[in-house]
Amino acid sequence: MAFLEISDLSKRFGGLTAVNHVSFELAQGEVVALLGPNGSGKTTVLNMISGLLPVSGGSITLQGKRLSGLPAHRIAHAGVARTFQLVRVLPSLTVSENILAAILFRAGHTSEQEARIEAADLLAAVGLEGRGGEKATDLTYIDQKRMELARALASRPKLLLLDEWLAGLNPSELRIGIDLIAKLNARGITILLVEHVMDAVRALCPRAVVMNAGSKLADGPTADVLRDPEVVRAYLGEPHAAVA
Amino acid sequence: MKTILGLAAAAIAFAGLAAAPLYLGTYGIGLMIGLIGYVTLASAWALFSGPTRFVSLATVAFFGIGAYTVSVFYESFPPLVVLGLAALIGLGVSLLVGLATLRLAGVYFVIFTFGLAELIRQLVTWYEVNITGTLGRYLFVSYGPEVVYWQLLVLCAVTFGIGYLIQRSRLGLALKMIGDDEVVAEHCGLPTARVKLALFALSSVIITLVGAIQAPRWTYIEPTIVFNPTISFLTLIMALLGGATRLWGPAVGAVPLFLLFEWLSANFPDHYSIILGLLFMAIVFVLPRGVLDFLEGLTARMKSERSRQAAGTAPEHGKGRLAEGEAK
Q1: What is the ipTM score, two decimals?
Q2: pLDDT tens across B288-308, in order?
Q3: Which CATH class is domain B2-254?
Q4: Of A16, A133, B81, B279, whose CB count within 10 A is highest?
Q5: Nearest CA in chain A to B191
Q6: What pTM was computed for the model?
Q7: Which of A52, A84, A101 sits opposite B188 (nearest CB)?
Q8: What is the secondary structure of A49-118 as a DSSP string?
């Protein structure tokens, strides 16, 4: 039984098919990149896994438990957490409260005192030590991304979905970001990431799934997939594919 | 310590208000019934709509249900049983409405709740005209306005108590999360639909009880009186004026506005609605987050100005300009 099994997944918005019969699996502990040009349906797949969008066809199961059809909070309780393409903070709350929100409403009971200690630890883990009292909206964009990651980790996920979490980072921040994701994976968290930063994809993901126009185009070792003429054509157009 | 002092102050204020009928005349008691009624309505409205930002215009629907329930059953059951019955009917309607509408967002929810109030008014009118054959109902109870006032005061205190407990609980955090970003709240594991439904029902039951308790004040009940949409708008604007996300905010807005409306309706009965409309717009433009938030911001600015003066530093905007000049 695969850890995450996506089977014949489809999403239609009226007459537009955003995801068309996509299937792939993740083994426990893998870090897999979901690649593809803009509009290929990557974020839509993530949105269906996390429950933000209902599926139009097919199924999603996590460790044999069917996720498709469940509301997002039940999927979160099943062990799926995510970050968003455009950072989403809870603006009226402090940094610490943003993390507490995820700790206090995850599956199982946690006392408020335990939650505060855990929130401080999580903030330290993403490089926001001592910043818990600040308003979430006062953080810089990069720090908001760190906070959003800490909030995703606060729900103790088995599967972490990262939607372009490394986008917009400068080279030194990118190094820190890659190390952080690698550490999370070393702790046993399975990660599916949508990413355009190819250095990060090569460094983190032994395997990649590529989508184009809503369909799966390739699935295999990252280095092979990125050399695949079909993938190059989808990303860069016909002339580049011929060169490749 | 601060909490104990606050509770003691609240208890003294409650005792003082409870004694009001002993030293107020008939007009004074009537005025206080209206005042406490609106403080309770605005506070109950803000329990749900304040933190979640789901603006409900269904206040008068539940208020009217409460009043009509009393007018129908007051001769059949003891007063407290009738109040319980009104609360149950309010709960049932709010659960039905909540299940149907709380998935709507923004302006769609506002329009639905406004339409709901109108629908219930028309249904009651139709029933009265076609089934009972009469439009209005007389309502003569055996107790006086003092009892109405005390009942309302207890309901008001209970509403504040509930608001206080919610703000200090996980439920308070949950409501803020929903108001901030429902998608994030749901992805944090919060069952947002259930939380919204529970709070909408709680708020609606309190509003229903306000209508039920105040009903005997009219003596004659008909749909145009107890389903008057102005009640919904007044409640909303009172909560917004004081600050709908704060415990005392709705009360801070309700007291001056109620007194002002009383004076306006007595002195300018023909132009009352025009002045009311202008006032609504002015409040939304000038104090969109309410008086308490405005005062808090003002105090914070004054404090920071004083500390800057004490430290002998220039204001922040001045520093910014200097820095730009230096860069050039």
Answers
A1: 0.91
A2: 777 878 888 888 888 888 877
A3: mainly alpha
A4: B279
A5: A73
A6: 0.86
A7: A101
A8: HHTSS--SEEEEEETTEE-TTS-HHHHHHHTEEE--SS----TTSBHHHHHHHHHHTSSS---HHHHHHH
